[in-house]
């Protein structure tokens, strides 16, 4: 499969992993939008949030807990952080393998642009 995040998950593209287990990995975003910008992704290819099924509830929860773990490991849990998952065109999704953005290290604005 040509999916870039699948290639990262299979280590076909060398990327430093901040966290990994059998189900999920976390690594730094190539184009950071904040001083800390990490992507948490399932190893399994799921194109968009629309494709997530109730059978994958545990996996979805694991993505959240991975972001929490990375935030703690990188000591931003107290200063705070934002989690974002973009879906399809209006959501701004550009890589069609679901990923949770973890953004930290600066004040986030609301509403997002
Ligand atoms: P989104 O727009 O939500 O689909 O976010 C995709 C993000 O993926 C974007 O912030 C840039 C990042 N990205 C794209 N290709 C690569 C890559 O090859 N390596 C890494 N580390 N990040 C990538």
Order of helices and strands: HEEEHEHE
- Averaging pLDDT over every residue, what do you get? 97
Gross morphology is globular
Roughly how many Å apart are the termini?
Answer: 32 Å
Tell me the number of helical segments per DSSP (H or I, 4 or more residues long): 3
Return the domain count: 1
Oligomer: single chain
Structural class: alpha+beta
User: In total, how many beta strands?
Assistant: 5
What Rg is obtained from the alpha carbons, in whole angstroms?
Answer: 14 Å
Instruction: Give the bound compounds.
Output: 2'-deoxyguanosine-5'-monophosphate
Q: Low-confidence runs (pLDDT<50, min 5 residues)?
A: none
Query: What share of the residues does DSSP label as strand, in percent?
Result: 15-25%
Largest sheet: 5 strands, antiparallel
Widest sheet: strand order? 1-2-3-5-4
User: Helix fraction?
Assistant: 10-25%
What is the CATH-assigned architecture?
Answer: 2-Layer Sandwich
Determine and state the CATH class.
Alpha Beta
Give me the CATH superfamily: HIT-like
Q: What is the CATH T-level topology?
A: HIT family, subunit A
Would you kindly provide a written description of the structure presented here, covering whatever features stand out?
The chain has 113 residues and is an alpha+beta fold. The chain has a single domain, classed as HIT family, subunit A, CATH 3.30.428. The protein contains 3 helices and 5 strands, in the order αβββαβαβ. It has helices at 4-9, 57-73, 88-91; strands at 17-20, 24-28, 36-42, 81-84, 100-104. A 5-stranded antiparallel β-sheet has the order 1-2-3-5-4, covered by helices on one side. The longest helix has 17 residues, at 57-73. The N and C termini lie far apart (32 Å). 2'-deoxyguanosine-5'-monophosphate (DGP) is lined by residues 4, 15, 27-31, 39, 86, 92-95.
